[in-house]
Structures are given as C-alpha cells and as structure tokens.
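Give me structure tokens for this 460-residue protein.
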Amino acid sequence: MASKSKRTTAFFCSNCGYESSKWLGMCPACHEWNTFTEEPLPSSSNAKTKSPSINARSGNRSVPLSISEIETDTADRVSSGIDELNRVLGGGIVRGSLILIGGDPGIGKSTLLLQVCRNLSTADHSVLYVSGEESARQIKLRAERIGKFKDSLKIYSETNLDTIKAEIEKMKPSFVIIDSIQTMYNDEITASPGSVSQVRESTGVLLRLAKELGISIFIVGHVTKEGSVAGPRVLEHMVDTVLYFEGESKGAYRIIRSVKNRFGSTDEIGVFEMREDGLREVKNPSEFMLSGRPENSSGSVVACCMEGKRPIMIEIQALLSDTSFNFPRREAIGTDHNRVSLLLAVLEKRIGLRLGNYDAYVNIAGGMRINEPALDLGIIMACASSFKNRPIDDNMVVFGEVGLSGEVRSVSSIEARVNEAVRLGFKRIVLPFSQVKDIKSVKDTELIGVKSISDAMELL
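Here you go.
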C-alpha cells in the first residue's frame, strides 16, 4: 500500500501562532477572524537539528536543583545609563534576558537602543549591534548625531540568523541588539522573512543564545495597525520583557511602557523628549505635561494619575458644544471612551445637566493614555466647567473615583498624589472626603474633601 504524501505546508494564525492543517475562518485559540496564512513546513532533516532544551549559561545537560541550591547575584543587573529605561526594566538590564521593544515606525526605537549601546560601550561592555534594515554606514551617520562611541561597540549588517548566531558564539558579547526581528531569516525555514514561522523560529534561536551564553539581547519588533507587535502572539510569551514605545512621531514626547516584565513591575513608565541629538530623559513628567496649559480657561482642570509608584500631574480638557446631529457625539482621546460616556450619564442624572443636545469631547493633554479611575472626578468637573462656561481655579488639583450614584470614592496612593501637588505649588487639592483624615496637615495648601459630585460642583 502506497504511503500518503507528507504535508509540505501548514496554516498559521498570524495573531497567536496556532497551527492547522487547513484554512480556518476563525482561530480556535485566540478567536480572531481571517488571520490564517499558508506557509511551508520545515523539512524533517532540519527539524532534527534543532537545539536541545535551554540550560542557562551552560551547554551541559540540566539537572533538577532544590531552590536552596540555586545561587543568585544582585550584580546580574547592568545599568543602561538611562534612568528612565532602568526604571521601566525594574532597575537595569538583567544578564541573559531577552527584551522585546515594539513601537510605530519613526518613534525612536533604534535611536534609544543606539544610545543604550553608547552608554554600555562607554562602561567597557562589549556590544554587538545587528541591523537588518540599515547598512553600517547609515548606522554610523545616525550615531554621529548622538555622540561619541567606543570601539567596544561592533556594527554588523546581516539578516541570516545562522551567520549571526555563529558570530555571537565567536565574539561572546555582553549585549546584542537585533534590529529588527522581522528582517531576520532562518535557513531551516523556507518561508519568507517576517512570516509567522520565521519570526517564531528566529526568536527561539535568540532565546537559546541568551540563556546558554548569558547574553542580554534586545529585539526590535514592528507593530501592526492595531498597535501590537507584528508576528505571532507567542512571540511575547517567549521573551522575558516586552516594552512599547508610545507617542506621536511628529510630537516631542515619547513614553516607554512595560506590558510584561519577569524581573520587575509592569506599572512603570519612562518619559523622553525627542531632540536633534537623540532622546532626552524627562526627569519631571508633571511639569512637562502641564507646559503650555491655558490660564483662566473653562473646561480645563489638573488631575493626578499614578504610573507605577510615580505620581504625574496631567491636564484634562473638555469641550461641550451644541450638536447638529440627532445623536450627540462622544469623543475621548487619551482615556476610555466608554468611561467618559458613563460619567456624562452620571453628570446628567445626578446633577441635572441636560447634555442630550451637546457634543462632548474629552482630551488628556500631552498625549498620555490613562484609564485610571482617579481621573473620574477631573473629567466630571472639566465637562461641567465647559458646559457652564466657568473656569476652574488654576491652582486646584482634582482626583477621585466617581460611582454611579454620584459618590466620590477613595483612590490609591493618596499621600504620593498630595505630596506631588504640594511640590508643584498647587494651593487647593480636591480629594475624596473619606481620605482627608489620612493626610497630615499640609502648609499653605487647602485640602477640600468632597463626598459627591454635588459637593464638587459648588467649587465652580
């Protein structure tokens, strides 16, 4: 009886990497529609040559160890030379870690990593910068704009992962930059660079190199129009840390945010400003976000949000205008659209403001994206200020969560928020009434506790 011919292609989900022998309309794993693409399968001979299981910093066969036998070293973290990046990473770069950085084109990913390379090479660490998108000459032209570099930084323009792997094993650098993972290809995979198979297998090779040789590897990943890293979702599960670079490419600010970190918190953010000579750290994000704020203007209020352990003052802007449609528009930029619609309903029901004939636009100035409940009271007051055309005191800070009954509920990190407001010179702080007793007396600052949004409306 003749044997059945083996399959040479398979269908992969571009979102999560799920494999199927036939095309499916909906992925059974991630439930996304129309994400399956047909790609060649690796040959059986190539499949046998794949690396064995990972054993960190050693090519020897791993053995089970009791947790008391495992040694740790606080020196396993290395400073990147950029405090804002160190904060997001949890204190520095962990040796042997695999870090994925994603962001829109032109946002500054390569510039940031080039600055990290300069700082690491200045500290006498060996660094290999592998670029699949630019030539060595192009990288040097960009590097000259940033500053001076030491010879411990090596530039390598290559896309063949086998060649790159051999060079890394030969050099054994302390740090490796891969820019970008979508340009790399593995000879064992017949699919084109950037495909699901290539991205997954290439990341697997880099993961084994990082763990076996103790090398910290940064991977640059392109993002899709939805804002997620292009390629299979399994890519984010394989790496140790996932960072996203946010901000408008034509704007001055940049925010780097951690969405996954095995060695630190995922709540921290780093704030940068793009300049001609590269990215500059913003040590005081509150002053940066409030720069250019209008004075004595209705629909504008300052609120305090928490990003990790860091309090940041932001400006909430609201504009309510007569609608020319049967259904008024509700737009939110920088915060949750559904949350804004809910707060407008609370404002109409509990205060009696008739907003059915008004379009409502809410904006978080500075381009921040925040969904913290502590902004509720600020959004409520900004909308009421715009509706009544009455400006809010410029020296006032507002924060508190608002419930459906119009009550103002407690928020976290109350002392940090109040201290940040006092440090920036605000004279009046509106906060939940239940938390006023938790704050020590503050000199030259008035603490105004409100139980409901009705109390807050009296401040207008």
